[in-house]
Amino acid sequence: MLLDIHSHQLTDHPEHVLLNCGMQDCHTPEFQQARYLSVSLHPWYLTEENLPGQLEWMAEMLAADSVIALGEAGLDKCCPVSYELQRTAFLETVRLSEQYQLPLILHIVKTSNEIIALRHETSASQPWIIHGFRGKKELAASYLRHGFYLSFGEKYQPQALVSTPSDRLLLETDTAPVSVLQLAEKAASLRGISGRELLHEITENTNRLFFSR
């Protein structure tokens, strides 16, 4: 029952958590204990020198049954890494996502227009999920029109969460010291439904996105 689609920490229930791991994390206890993994090519950790090695590591990891998603990956204009290098790495991640038919979890900072354009330019068919969405309702509507999923963490605009259709809504803890159950209770209250009903919707979404292939 996968509930938390993006976290950097495990709980007592690893079956609830999709653990994000980059090449730099592969010797951590969490990596060894995770039930489900997403493999990351994060723009913060990119250099011209390490990109080939990171791509080789990702390709090796994709043979593991525990890997059910790619990312986080994406574009970040607040990051000191050159935009062109970020774009090159992101396009490689999209290629792997399509080749292995795995969802892609996105790290997007001040690049919403660019990521929407790349979704169409690449003719990507796999689900793209905006992780840690904090934008306004209008930006949420724009992403939703273009087929994206939105994942909400500890901080977000309530109107954006309320306006997101139940079949495009996901939850994540990221690095926050909260449980996904706490997030679900708060989100359910805002949406005017029970926590049990929201968790059922989230589970339906994660089953469809990560296990129906």
Give the key terms.
alpha/beta; single chain; 19% strand; globular; 213 residues
Commentary on this structure:
- The chain is an alpha/beta fold.
- 41% of the residues lie in helices and 19% in strands.
- It has eight helices and eight strands.
- The chain has helices spanning 29-33, 51-61, 83-100, 112-121, 137-145, 158-163, 180-191, 195-211; strands at residues 4-7, 17-21, 36-41, 67-76, 104-109, 128-130, 149-152, 169-171.
- Strands 1-2-3-4-5-6-7-8 form an eight-stranded parallel beta sheet, sandwiched between helices.
- α5 (137-145) links the parallel β6 (128-130) and β7 (149-152).
- It starts with a strand and ends with a helix.
- The mean pLDDT is 96.
Give a nutshell description of this structure:
The protein has 213 residues and is α/β, with parallel strands linked by helices. It has helices spanning 29-33, 51-61, 83-100, 112-121, 137-145, 158-163, 180-191, 195-211, and strands spanning 4-7, 17-21, 36-41, 67-76, 104-109, 128-130, 149-152, 169-171. An eight-stranded parallel sheet has the order 1-2-3-4-5-6-7-8, with helices on both faces.
- Tally the helices: 8
Instruction: Give the N-to-C terminal Cα separation.
Output: 16 Å
Q: Largest sheet, described in full? A: 8 strands, parallel
Across the major sheet, the strand order is 1-2-3-4-5-6-7-8
Number of strands: 8
- What is the H-and-E element order? EEHEHEHEHEHEHEHH
Our estimate of the beta-strand percent is: 15-25%
Poorly predicted sequence stretches spanning 5 or more consecutive residues: none
Overall, the morphology is: globular
Rounded to an integer, what's the Rg over CA atoms?
16 Å
Portion of residues within helices: 40-55%
Structural class: alpha/beta
Instruction: Please tell me the overall pLDDT.
Output: 96
